[in-house]
# Entry
Amino acid sequence: MRGVTCYACEILIKQKIKPMKAIFTFLSMWFMLSYVGVNAQNDPTIDQLGTVKIMEDDPVQSIKLTGMTDGDDGTQTLSLTAVSDRPGFFSTLEFNYSDSDTSVVFQSAADSCGITNITITVTDNENPPKFTTMTFAVEVECVNDLPTIDQHDDVVVNEDPPNGVVLVQLTGISAGPPNEPQGLVFSLYPVDQEMIDSMKMDYTTGDDEGTLNIFIARDTSGTSNITIYPIDDGGNLFNGTAMTFNLTVNSVNDAPALDAIGDVTTDNDGMEHIIDLTGISEGAPNETDQVLTFAISSDNSALFSDLLVKYVEGESTGTVKFTPAPGASGEANVTVTVTDDGGTDNGGTDETRQVFKITITDTPTAVSSLNKDKLIVYPNPVTDMLKVNLSEAAMSGVTYEIYSIGGVEVMSGNISGNVISIPVSRLNSGLYQIKVRSGDNIHTGRFVIK
# Structure
């Protein structure tokens, strides 16, 4: 040990220890110095791990660590630490200790993918401590997440919505997590394709809301299931997650149909008049099984001796019939009302009204068709004896003929003098025409028999 200072020897000498005891003490100290100097010089050990490959959002991984020692005689206590070169990449990064082995335990954070390195440091409890590091790679393969859309409550609307469209606001729309800024398309599937004409989605990429436009066929009702698939462009052929809801369209009774009726003006001829009604229907093609009823009213009932409406079920036409009251004249507002049996639930309408005016003028007293000579027929209306007054200038060779409103001759005779009386009590009530012939001249007039 030449050139080496023996501090232990120097200590023994200074303490004046006896030679044999000094030798024993010296050897003991030498052994201790030799143990410390030899066994405390090695670093801890740990076997190298290869690259670990997992999928995005896989469950917790546990990798057994091997070859881990204190580098010396195994009496030292070891401590472990682990860090990633991508902070926040792992939701779990820790160790699991058991009697037989030690494992590193890790799980990537939700929706994290890519490559990161984990460095494990093994440290002993010497003073100063020694340590060893081992770094291994973790490859997390990206997995396309399903796009999202919130479930929607069932939708209930009434038949024939405004503009024929139902607007449904959809929320929670995304292509998946923030690491998937993908485009979206929407597949739309209605079950009832007779009630639903078409559908379209109004959506702007990146928004979390959109509007579903459902176009409803006119005059239809019922319930249809609607399924919506948002589909991203992340690489899968079809990766949508379905959202479904029911659309119910309540039946709403349409008003029955009846064309407008034009105003009518007529003389008080005492005859029955007929007005045609057109455009009659139950109101909608899906309501043809309804039953229609008609009613008629007037704000001047004294103007008529008869006022009624006629309709045959299933026809598109009908009639209004009226007969002026004897001697009556004036105006009346007449209302024709058609009602179906579809009810008024959900805001339905079960009737339609058309109002028109009937004007009845005074009874005509005479009509001259060929000259200015006057033919006067009175009283009008008449019950038994009709008087005819013709000017003297037309009194030679005069005959008369009386015709029904249908043009059938019912009476005839000669006229002598300028005023004659004709018994008409045997004729039926109604409107008649009288023709007075004088040479080549013909005078005509109308009268009513009560």
Observations:
- Residues 19-39 form the longest helix (21 residues).
- The first strand starts at residue 52 and ends at 55.
- The radius of gyration is 57 Å.
